[in-house]
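Hi! If you just cloned this repository, the fastest way to understand the data is to look at a raw example. We've pasted two of them here, unedited. The first protein comes first, obviously.
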Amino acid sequence: MESHVPDAYSDLRDNIREFCMKEVIPVAAKIDTDDSFPVDLFRKMGKMGYLGVTVPEEYGGSGMDYIAQGIIQEELGYASASLALSYGAHSNLCLDSLYRNGSEFMREEYVPKLCSGEWIGSLCLTEPSSGSDAFAMKTSARREGDSFILNGSKTLITNAPYADLMLTYARTDADFTAFSVLASDKGVRKGSSFKKLGMKGSPTGELFFEDVFLPGERIVGKENDGKNVILSGLNVERAILAMLFVGLSRRALELSLSYSQERKQGGFPIADYELIQEKISYMYTRIEAARLLCQRALERVQNNRFNVADSASAILYAAEVAEFAAREAVQIHGGYGYTSGSEVERLLRDSILGQIGAGTTEIRKKIVARAVSKMFREGWRP
């Protein structure tokens, strides 16, 4: 399937696609089998300019936008969903938010290291007792003069086992504040790494903070304004992450087309049978619809990071399509598709994360419904 991108982004699409074909696809199965994070490959992505794609060149980035980031995410999702997940956590959730909200000190000291891949970044929001209800967090930062003392823990954090910088949210007074926390800070401890059903090779772990001293210059944004940092970042994350599942879906369809035209039963390729054709037709139609919805979300969130309806509906649908496409791919491949180590088996395992990560499907439905109802009250009509 050909990815439809504006002319201004065609070179980027060709470059990241070539990178994936040469560097990512050959090791994608090994990343999954070994459950190993490809640090060297990640740093190579930094040298190619992919990690800091939304950051201006003066701070080590490529000076592009969310549409460009979405293109990279889609192609990585096609090649290795787990690498794409870690890319999104680093490039979008951590780096982009740090650049947009951070001080000049952070832009000069931290952002270039994240752009180059010298440092690996993560977002620390989820806690043992707060997932979908993110604002029920218990991690706190107590002010002491011009500094803060951070205490608490985070869990199920993408990239945590390898992270050098964690964009961390904590309670401050009656509100929330975002901080840049370094793995080298005294009192920071990395806990267990989780074994997961899918997205193997994208490290997920725990973080513990015990009396971590943070000077005031570590605040990202403004004190007690963390809620706005969170919400603007999550809307962009949904639109970007949705592209990962468009890429995964594309791969599922491509593998299904190839196998169904080669595999013969009753003397004919199984692609000649109508029940297989039905599967292919629905996969193609839903993937194309998901792609268009996601591209529109990226275009709109580029101008309004608080565009809730478009970003949430994009990932709601793209994630469901990815799981559908991967499940149909397994069915088309039959017994071979069900064997451990087959690529479509990996795609199915990876696809399930789409309906859990970055907010569950159930929460996304709630978000979309509330946003559309509010738009309707304010005069919008379908």
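Ok, and the second one:
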Amino acid sequence: MKTTEPVLTAVPVLDETNALTGLSELPRPLVSESPLLDAYSAAVTRAAEQVSRAVVKIDVIKPGGTGDRRGSREGGGSGSGFIITPDGFILTNSHVVHGAERMEVTLADGRRPDAHLVGTDLDTDLAVIRIYAPNLKPVCLGDSNQLRVGQLAIAIGNPYGFQYTVTAGVVSALGRSFRAPSGRLMDNLIQTDAALNPGNSGGPLVDARGKVIGVNTMVILPAQGLCFAIGINTAKYIAGWLIKDGVIRRSYIGVGGQTAKIHRRLVRHFQLPNETGMLVLGVEPGSPASRAGLREGDIVVEFAGQAIAGIDDLHKHLTGAQVGVRLALTVIRHTERLTLEIVPEESHAKPERN
């Protein structure tokens, strides 16, 4: 039987299973990559495209800065922000614009409209600025109370001046606490491993649907994957007051805490309206909370006659109207329900407004 050397051809043949073989030599038409993207890539791409038009770059000039490249380092800096209303209100971090003598905002399409500071709140590291330009595309705000550890988190910003960069990761933890620039404890922060750089400060953290779930605020530089964002529910509340009054006048009781679940038996036994409350993680010495007898481990369920379902609820009720007023504070301590008397003081953080 005569044998021949195998020859590569561009003609398909049938193998023993009647399957076509030899097609690898055939020329293939170019195929669009879009249908081949996996679900993860598609989600990140879709969210980034939806939000990126609302992300802005913020350059600040502080006293002593010259406005050139060297002066920007010495007397200024840059950060990110995002448009939250069609009429030009932008949310960012307080530390991005704090002490700014002048601000320059660059939109995603390259426009540089006039901008001015509406107000800042050092206690939550949030600020609102306003620009005047037509055809603005605001973001869609989500609900940070619905977040779950492990869900997709996408950070968008302008690190080091590079316009529109995207990093993706997951929500690593919830309920983190850190000190704000004013010294006040910032509660209920979102921890994510989506990589952040200094220029990302003030940019949006979004979910897979493109809804903003947080405001990127800080990164622990010596660590890997320890990045934090302010929950958007807190940001919406603070932004509303800054837009309305330009300042946040609030009372202070001196506790750090986070939203926590209450055992179902306690909820039923005490007929509580919510299954969650504010877990006290720390009490500052000499503070109103300390004088009232509040302890670490207590769960606050009511303040001034209002049900407290978490840290955001308590923040909402600690307004300027509560300063110097003797109020009832109801807590769950172990298996007991206690009512304490507390007199909030005015927060010493100084608001800033241009």
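That's it. A detail worth noticing about the second one: The CA atoms of residues 47 and 209 lie 6 Å apart.
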